[in-house]
Amino acid sequence: KLVFPGSFLLAILALRAPFAQKILAFGTGPNRFLEACFVFFLALFFIRLIDSCIQGRFLRKRVPFPLPRVLHALILVVLYVLILFMILKGILGINITPFLATSAILTGILGLAFQGVLSNILSGMSLHLTKSFGRGDWVRIRDTEGVVMDTNWRETRIFDRSFNVVVIPNNIVAAEIITNFSSPDNKSAVALPVKAGYESPPALVLKLLREAAREVPGVLTAPAPASYIMSYDDLGISYLLKFWISDYSRKQATATEAGRHVW
């Protein structure tokens, strides 16, 4: 990150050296331009230096950077443009009002042309700022259930249970109901419906359901498994066995093992 602005700073310093001034015989105009370039790349150097130090600190602590990549890049671009306008007006004495007017018109045209892209970008920022989910979380979005691989400026990538990568545009993600199975913690409840005949005493069935769940590896002891009577039907009584797991990736395997123990 520092090589690009550092190289230009060295080149400008070389051009501003006395021997270079004598050889090239720069006038007032080129010297003022070199001064403006020097200030711009110096500001660029320090911004990138501070940014690298902050990101390096999070990297050393093995903590994810709090800002999404798209928002981080947008902040840097805004800083660069502000510094450029300040240099144009303060050092070169250029009236930047026409640039501002032109940039406003250009922004409007680009906004209409890239409406879908901008919608995805803003939706991505909203998802990150609200912390709806993070990388590594198990989520369900619409009919897709899986682990979040990444969220960039345009899309969210989910690795589903069929070992496929599902790419969902951010504007669709923001408009859908999101179920995050990793929040507020890794505990998730699994419900297993069971039906038994009227000849089986309900108290015994409820007890056996809880005992069956406790024998399954991966089922948490706290909260403890619970069982309920759901309804009395024509062919028997409907029960519900509810237990909690911490590894949501093994939900189906754990539910299958619990069903085997119930049988």
Q: What topology emerges from the helices and strands here?
A:
Elements: H1 3-15, H2 18-24, H3 28-60, H4 69-90, H5 97-113, H6 115-130, E1 138-141, E2 144-151, E3 155-160, E4 165-169, H7 170-175, E5 178-180, E6 188-196, H8 202-214, E7 226-232, E8 237-245, H9 251-262
Antiparallel strand pairs: 1-2, 1-5, 2-3, 3-4, 6-8, 7-8
Helix pairs in contact: 1-3, 3-4, 8-9
The largest β sheet comes out as: 5 strands, antiparallel
Q: Which spans of ≥5 residues are poorly predicted at pLDDT below 50?
A: none
- DSSP summary, beta strand count: 8
N- to C-terminal distance: 62 Å
Q: Strand-residue fraction?
A: 15-25%
Order of helix and strand elements from N to C terminus: HHHHHHEEEEHEEHEEH
Structural class: alpha+beta
Mean residue pLDDT: 82
| Rounded Rg | 30 Å
Structure in a nutshell:
The protein is an alpha+beta fold and 263 residues long. It has nine helices and eight strands. Strands 4-3-2-1-5 form a five-stranded antiparallel β-sheet.
Q: What do these coordinates show?
A:
The chain is an alpha+beta fold. 53% of the residues lie in helices and 19% in strands. It has nine helices and eight strands. It has helices at 3-15, 18-24, 28-60, 69-90, 97-113, 115-130, 170-175, 202-214, 251-262, and strands at residues 138-141, 144-151, 155-160, 165-169, 178-180, 188-196, 226-232, 237-245. A five-stranded antiparallel sheet has the order 4-3-2-1-5. Strand 2 (144-151) and strand 3 form a beta hairpin. Helix 1 (3-15) runs antiparallel to helix 3 (28-60). It is elongated and about 105 Å long. The N and C termini lie far apart (62 Å). The model has no long low-confidence stretch (mean pLDDT 82).
